[in-house]
Write a structure and sequence with these properties.
Layout lengths: L6 H8 L8 H17 L6 H10 L3 H9 L6 H14 L8 H13 L3 H8 L7 H11 L4 H20 L8
Helix pairs in contact: 1-3, 2-4, 4-9, 5-6, 6-7, 6-8
């Protein structure tokens, strides 16, 4: 008899990564997230979604994803992030990264109202959520936040991959 695990079952089994420092896990997560963004066609298996959501609980992998929001066309990125947000179980650590990434994407495209609503899905103590709430409350120009992301991305890539050539950042 084969038992099929639901998305939630798989996430419970995996747990969360948080601020761990295992480069092997971070590399795997960055490659997985990049491939997910690149190949997403509107649906994915629960196992794949669970793996992406799990790896996005790592701060460095989340920051890597933050840096690739512009790598793919806006409509595709919006589709991926909406899908992940829809699939992530609410009131868990797994919803934080998709909510914040989607909020950034919306904010940088001038839709601060939708960004604020989306951001309300993230836990109030989540670090990126706190930063985004402050940025939006201060009326920071979206282009300035995008510039900050673009300046941070090479540092995140270097921190994850060191001298690895595993990924075209």
């Amino acid at each position: 008899m084969t038992t099929t695990m639901t998305l939630n079952d798989r996430l419970v089994e995996l747990g969360v990564l948080g601020d761990q420092h295992d480069k092997t896990i971070q590399r795997k997560g960055a490659v997985l997230v990049n491939n997910f963004f690149m190949s997403f066609n509107g649906e994915a298996s629960d196992e794949t979604v669970a793996d992406v959501l799990y790896h996005l609980t790592d701060i460095q992998v989340r920051d890597y994803a933050l840096g690739i929001l512009d790598k793919y066309d806006s409509k595709s990125t919006l589709s991926v992030l909406n899908y992940l947000l829809d699939k992530a179980p609410t009131d868990t650590a797994f919803i934080n990264a998709p909510a914040c990434l989607l909020a950034v994407h919306l904010y940088e495209r001038g839709d601060s109202a939708s960004a604020a609503i989306t951001l309300s899905n993230a836990e109030s103590h989540y670090s990126l959520g706190i930063l985004l709430r402050r940025v939006m409350a201060a009326g920071w120009p979206p282009a300035s936040f995008a510039n900050m992301r673009n300046e941070l991305h090479p540092k995140v890539v270097a921190g994850i991959f060191d001298d690895e050539d595993d990924l075209d950042a």
